[in-house]
Amino acid sequence: MFDSLSTKLTGVFSSLRSRGKINSSDIENTCADIRSALLESDVALSVVDSFIDLIREKALAALPNLQSGSNQAQAIFEIINVELIEILGGAARRIRFAKNPPTVIMLAGLQGAGKTTLAGKLAKFYLDQGDTPLLVASDLQRPNAVTQLQVVGESVGVPVFAPEPGNGVGDPVKVAEQALVFAKSKLYNMIIVDTAGRLGVDQELMQQAIDIRNAVKPDEILFVVDAMIGQDSVRTAQAFQEGVGFDGVVLTKLDGDARGGAALSIAKLTGLPIMFSSNGEKLTDFDIFYPERMASRILGMGDVATLAEQAKKALDTESSAKMEEKFARGDDFTLEDFLEQLEAMSKMGSMSKLLGMLPGAGAMKKQIENFDESEIVRTKSIVQSMTPLERQDPKVLNGSRRARIALGAGRKVQDVNSLVDKFSAAQKMMRQMRNSGGMPPAMAQSMGMPAGMGAGPISSRKSQAPAKKKSKSGNPAKRAAEERG
Ligand code: GDP
Description:
alpha/beta; Four Helix Bundle (Hemerythrin (Met), subunit A); 434 Repressor (Amino-terminal Domain); eight-stranded mixed beta sheet; binds guanosine-5'-diphosphate
């Protein structure tokens, strides 16, 4: 969502870095460029102006103490980074859990903001952390909201308290009250109350939300807002703040291509933190909102921290340990391992979203958008069409085996050949890495690789490995060429 802002800001910084010595008029120009980039991205005017005044003041004050050259630009960049983190809410805040469970989380916001979807995402998030959430269907207004919550609950394995059919029937306040009693008696440690929204702010909507709030006294009221609706998101947030009051904001639809800057103003204008963000329709398209990571993304430095976290989550500890053992034994990286890695990659979610977190991603927008997500599925289907022996030892892949695999995967023989060639290159790289001592542990881990692959020199382990004969290519055409050679 913030690609174009990020691309513009990256341009501003690279022009600042290219200056030999920075003077006060360079700072003025930089401030003017940042101001217009933020305004074009729809960040609220008052937020932009106070931000620019602050960075101008701090940068001018710092200037006499800065050495010339790129350090000056870096120091100014750092001032901007710190202030941007502040605008986005400063340090991340987590949900406050009730001293006496259940913790009550109430979701409020306009219809279509994404509350019901978010209820499921939150329930899954806390379930995965070992909590025992109960979803509560207090949106009895929007057609099918109750059924939608039941479907969402079922797909994440969280029970739904839904005594009323909805579609205009039932009292949402009573449902919330009964849910609280039910949760206490059944020892759920958290309830997530989905409430009704209207298409615009109105008194009836506010009153219903206030009544639910008074009845269940939430530990957290989360205001859910669609980041695609521009300045309306700010106005709605302020109206809810005055009407119901809330404790934190959840931005949804950050995967959209609207300018999105308005939503970034909400934390500053309400003085309340953005706690979560939602960036897609799938239940896994959900993140804790870290202001510093978002600032990093906006300033074109990517979000490597989130990327590393997702990689770690995807490669479960059991398969990491297995890979590490294999590697330590000196065993080769096989197509079976490759398949496991591909599966882990699919678990990490959409590749274009992952690539979007890399530094400089804004500039590669087109290529990232054009990334063919189904390539991973196609590659997986080729490996899955191989027998265990073939996966273990691709050298046995003669012409007829390759033809059978291609047929099984619904691909061409050339696709099989190209995969085997790419795999052999990867295998060779793995061997070289092992022989030369591997990559640094932190880097390996951040790439989701098992610790052993990054751990220091493995020469002692290498000596345990049996000496390997010079391999012959399994690609018939290549093998013939090798033999001729
Ligand atoms: P509610 O009326 O507030 O309960 O909104 P819903 O949860 O029903 O969401 C409204 C629509 O937005 C649905 O079609 C959702 O699938 C979609 N939606 C929700 N969150 C996101 C998101 O983060 N990204 C995208 N692209 N769509 C979303």
